[in-house]
Design a protein that fits this description.
Blueprint (H helix, E strand, L loop, with lengths): L1 H20 L3 E6 L7 H16 L3 E6 L2 H10 L6 E2 L2 E2 L3 H25 L4 E5 L6 E5 L11 E6 L2 H8 L3 E5 L1 E3 L5 E3 L2 H12 L3 E6 L14 E3 H10 L6 H13 L4 E6 L5 H7 L5 E5 L1
Parallel strand pairs: 1-2, 1-11, 2-8, 5-8, 11-13, 12-14
Antiparallel strand pairs: 3-4, 6-7, 9-10, 13-14
Length: 283
């Protein structure tokens, strides 16, 4: 009987969050271990489908860097990076479109459908959803790497209204219709702003945003994030992630989360429990 009561208490704890987020859009960047480990893949898919069935509107944006790297290696082509971004020449872009927009995207749609949902695979080039200009950080030439400048999200809106869970590959197009590789975090943030999302969630392979002693900071404000970056507490690969969160919040997204994707049912735990399993950033 106690186990049954415990289950009921879990639902009671979740009820205020269910009410708050009913019919709200949640954009989730899916990547890291959650895309590789089979048990994590299955728990993630269940989480997303459950969100849909209780009235939220999940939208998935996925990465695929390791899969692209393996495909390039099989062709004898070396992966090159500048400032953490893949240098993308024409030959590399062909692989990106095949792997990211094809194989990886289709596998995630299949995963969602096995969990009982209706997935719809899209890429940012669909109806020019992600419009980009070439990214040149510090004047460096990365090839066909795009920075999102405009989002046309009608295809996603229609898909969610028809009961689908959109699964978006981060491939954008420039004004000439040329495809570009887009950072998945950036694509997710841009879509969250365009969709007026209540939440942006970035799944990572770390516990969340950590303080100087390595302890999780479960809640941060925009001002606190800026302070921790200036002090060097937030550094390395976490900086672009939290900057993506700050840009989303600046674009009126309700909350942004950096979530430990190595935890089973991480998405549900972060949304529907008081403690969560990552870092939430708010105004």
């Amino acid at each position: 009987m106690k186990q049954l009561i415990d289950k009921a208490e879990v639902l009671v704890e979740a009820l205020p969050y269910m009410r708050r987020f009913f019919e709200k859009t949640v954009v989730i960047k899916y990547g890291g271990s959650a895309m590789v480990d089979e048990s994590l893949r299955e728990s993630f898919a269940v989480d997303v489908v459950l969100l849909k069935y209780i009235g939220l509107r999940p939208v998935l944006v996925h990465g695929g860097g390791p899969q692209i790297g393996r495909a390039l290696a099989s062709l004898g082509k070396e992966s090159k990076f500048i400032d953490g971004l893949r240098v993308t020449d024409d030959a590399t872009m062909e692989v990106v479109e095949r792997v990211l927009g094809g194989e990886v995207n289709a596998s995630i749609v299949e995963l969602v459908e096995r969990a009982g949902g209706r997935g719809l695979g899209l890429t940012g080039q669909h109806d020019s959803m992600l419009r980009v200009e070439r990214k040149r950080p510090g004047g460096k030439d990365l090839g066909r790497v795009g920075q999102v400048v405009k989002v046309e999200c009608e295809a996603i809106v229609q898909a969610t209204q028809q009961g689908y869970i959109p699964v978006v590959a981060p491939i954008g197009v420039d004004p000439d219709g040329v495809t570009h590789n887009v950072n998945a975090d950036e694509a997710a943030g841009a879509l969250a702003v365009a969709l007026g999302a209540e939440k942006l969630m970035l799944l990572t392979d770390v516990e969340g945003v950590l303080d100087a002693k390595g302890a999780l900071m479960s809640q941060l404000t925009v001002a606190e994030v800026a302070k921790h970056i200036d002090e060097g507490t937030i550094r390395g690969g976490m900086i672009p992630k939290v900057e993506c969160c700050l840009q989303a919040l600046d674009g009126k997204v309700g909350r942004a989360h950096v979530v430990d994707g190595r935890v089973l049912h991480a998405v549900l735990l972060e949304i529907f429990t008081d403690g969560g399993v990552g870092t939430v950033i708010t105004h």
